[in-house]
User: Which sequence fits this backbone?
């Protein structure tokens, strides 16, 4: 079984300090939380950025400063900017971090209800255009899917030549599709041979999905974007504490943790010296 790649989604666009005071907003706070996750065993830092007041932004310069701070603290970590941004942002806004030529970035493969009246819109034109820009700039997409239908769309776009192999999926479960072992097994069996996958369980399902993925040979995402609790009723003190729990689970189940360069090899990225 491959070594386990741990991704940490350190802040997201929706969660706030009101949910957990340790949620990072400033450049220094984002660097601190990335470092805590990296030192605990995360190879990939999934990155949204905020203004200092917590407002989400896709501003290119803000991403540049945050990525520089992360690289200073975590020299070989894989930094994976979000192109999802926040609900209501234009495609042009969302694509800004791709101009910085990261190794990876997320590619959302469908539209979904995001709570209340919020709709996270990803039309076919948007998906194909984002894939085109990533291909042209040599950025590997992490194909972010919230249900089985989005997997089917990603496979269709791959067959049409828009998304290149080998494909890497992130199953975000507990938003639109249930976060159960049955659902995880179903969606994991639906991706093309030679693909890799990670799972992000939202809220209370985070560590249940982590344990299942460890046993199934997949990979794991945790972090404040998905869940702010280390256990029922107890807030996590840092993103690093969430990663540490995954490392303990993996150790108990006999799965080794991938270094950033081992993660690059698994994902087909170039090794960083």
Assistant:
């Amino acid at each position: 079984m491959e070594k386990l790649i741990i991704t940490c989604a350190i802040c997201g666009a929706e969660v706030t300090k009101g949910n957990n005071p340790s949620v990072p907003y400033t450049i220094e706070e984002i660097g601190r939380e990335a470092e805590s996750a990296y030192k605990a065993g995360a190879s990939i830092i999934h990155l949204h950025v905020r203004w200092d007041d917590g407002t989400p932004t896709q501003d290119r310069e803000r991403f540049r400063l945050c990525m520089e701070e992360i690289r200073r603290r975590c020299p070989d970590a894989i930094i994976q900017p979000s192109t999802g941004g926040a609900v209501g942002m234009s495609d042009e806004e969302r694509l800004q971090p791709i101009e910085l030529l990261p190794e990876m970035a997320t590619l959302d493969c469908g539209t979904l209800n995001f709570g209340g009246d919020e709709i996270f819109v990803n039309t076919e034109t948007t998906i194909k255009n984002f894939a085109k820009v990533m291909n042209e700039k040599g950025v590997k997409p992490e194909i972010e899917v919230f249900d089985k239908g989005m997997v089917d769309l990603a496979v269709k776009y791959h067959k049409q030549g828009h998304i290149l192999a080998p494909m890497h999926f992130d199953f975000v479960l507990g938003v639109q599709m249930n976060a159960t072992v049955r659902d995880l097994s179903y969606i994991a069996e639906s991706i093309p041979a030679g693909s890799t996958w990670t799972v992000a369980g939202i809220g209370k399902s985070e560590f249940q999905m982590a344990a299942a993925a460890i046993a199934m040979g997949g990979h794991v995402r945790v972090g404040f974007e998905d869940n702010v609790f280390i256990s029922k009723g107890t807030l996590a003190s840092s993103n690093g504490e969430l990663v540490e729990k995954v490392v303990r689970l993996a150790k108990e189940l006999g799965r080794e943790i991938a270094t950033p360069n081992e993660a690059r090899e698994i994902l087909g990225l170039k090794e960083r010296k």
